[in-house]
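Example record

One chain of 226 residues, shown exactly as stored in the release files.
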Amino acid sequence: ILEGLSHFELRGDPALEIQGLAYDSRQVKPGDLFVAIRGHHSDGHEFVDRAVEKGAVAVAVETLTGCEAKVATVLVPDSRKALSKLALTFYDNPFKHSTLIGITGTNGKTTTTYLLESIVKAAGGKPGVLGTVNYRYSEKKVPAPVTTPESLDLIRLSREMVDHGVTHLVMEVSSHALDQGRTQDCPFNVAVFTNLSRDHLDYHNTMDEYFAAKSRLFTGLRADPS
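Predicted structure tokens for this chain:
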């Protein structure tokens, strides 16, 4: 599971079997690897002990927390980036055999996903959608707590969709998600830009920063569109 990480230090058994991944200590299950990520309101490193108490057998951290004597510890320079890499390996890269379409913009993202969903269906494809209203494919719909989920959730949902025959993944990509690297390992085949107007400046501070975040969707396009 560490194969996708370029820089890390492992303290513990390299042959340890991992049953699952978690970044929220409340969601940890026995056998999980807990990844402590730093958020805007809380720091996952403060919940490492709780994750271990709930059964985590390994943790990925940016700084040592004292738990390394209890469980295997993966020391990484950026745990949020590591979470995405770990998820991509754990879920066997669901993007390898699907067409990935990302839509960003201040307004119109949700409408565009519905349009693209209909186009894919009309063309004989099987779409899956991750967006503001819900995450859906076939007859299954899951309420969406955020527009673009954290990398682990995004990759897990994409794997579920691909396993159920989804051929085209249509994703609303928020500026927050782009700035935080939630989609850093999503090799988009197609990128759609709707518009840019004043919004989210409480987060991005300036329009230039807001635009820079949006533009990252296009730098993540696959070099080989096939």
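Notes: The longest strand covers residues 99-104.
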